[in-house]
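Schema walk-through. Below, the input block comes first and the output block second. Nothing else is stored per chain. Lengths vary across the set, and this one has 539 residues.
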Amino acid sequence: MQGGEITFTTKSRNRGRISAIAATAAFAVVLSAVLLFAVMDYETSEGAIGDEFTWDGMVYTITDETNKTVTLTKGADIKSVSLPHIAKKGSDEYRVTAIGEKAFFDMKNVEKVTIHAHSLEVIGKEAFRGCSALNMINIPTSVTAIEYAAFGSCSALVSIELQPAIITIGKEAFRDSGITGIVIHENVKTLEYRTFFNCTSLKSVDMPSVTQVKEGAFYLCTSLKTVNMPAISSLGTGAFGFCESLESIALPDAVKIIEDDTFGKCKKLASATFPGVTSIGARAFKDCLSLTAIELPSGLTTIGKEAFRGCTPIASVYIPSKVSNIGDSAFFDCSGSVASVEVSADNANYSSVDGMLFDKGKTKLIQGCNAGEVKIPSTVTAFKEWAFYECRSVKTLFFLGDSSPVFGEQSLNMGDRTIDAYAKFDDPKPGDFVCSETKVTFFKLKDKYNVTIAAMPNGKIKPTGATHQVDTGGDLLIEAVPDKGYKLKSLSLDGNPVVTVGNKYTITFVVSDVQVTAEFEPDGSPTPPPGDSSALIIA
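--- output ---
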């Protein structure tokens, strides 16, 4: 019994030791957990850069713990949004300095946004993009940047007041929005790529300090009527393309280049002045259907491909002396349009005859004219591609050279009709490559033609003689000389009366035999009666 008691006592002591150790370990675990949660709670209450928290239904991200600033990163898709100046996390208060990227992206219920954050500096990328119901928002005076597509596709947003503090307006910032008018203040110097692209309700733009408008900034602003940009110096490709309501444009001397498609398809553009421009890009004024006149500046050197194509009301174009490069079809589609191209005599690269554009030596016909009867100089050896394309007023072509020019692609395509052509050379039989729609019928010209002068009583016609031979395409000056007591009543060519000056008339461009007739009548001056003082001649 005693040994058993001793054994029992030893086991009890071991159990006590084990219990004590377990209790100590448990206490240590609990203490560690308490300390860990305390540390975590301390860090959470203090916050760290990048931490997110929710306040009043919207999510914010800490951007600066020292200065206590946050960015709104997730808005609320509700009808009326109120953005506070202060967002709270526990007992800490943070100033809202930015609306983050896609914060309200595609939120269809948002109609009104009231921003109370007077420390707000940035409206981020695509912040309100796709908010198609948004019709009212205020921009605080503290905002300096509106980033990429911030208000893109806000189709109900018809009005927005940009503050003077704004320095940057990002690419596509207002594209596809419903804005009707905009004033851009003096701190903004550049409008980025497609800033107002496809703002079809935009009617007026005032940007007095903007110096650079980049590619497509106002492209497809079909209602845009007036633009004020006195400080502009650079316009990007297609900057005002398809601005179908734009009526006039006046560019200051600082603008040196009009890029490709800058004013293309501006159908109501009736006036365009650009005195400092040296280069006009391809299609820069293409299809400006109301442009009645253009004055190309004296410093101009380059006119791009199709630059004025389809400007049908333009009656004439004067090419200044410094122009060294005219692109293909620069004055294309002349049905009712460019009737005359005149080139400065001092131009070293181009020349003109009868409204047609040639190289300097008149060996290549570059641009035809839209007259009824067209004379091709004898120096011409080649027609440029599309030279007479769509010149639908042309009825007859006269080739004065001895051999056929080389015809470029569609150079005689003047629409679905028949044209008569007269030439000394044999029919070159131009095919579909040259005139796919137009039938050109060639007639052979002789080297010389006869001008026959009929004998008439009571006067004569100089030069005397019954028949005079004139070179094809040449001229002949004739003069009717009445006998004493007679005067010229009429002078006719092939029976058709002509108007004379001092009884003289020049038969021009002789390409057929001509018969000249004259009719004389008594002068009709009454003989003064005897004794009439009016008959006295004092020698």
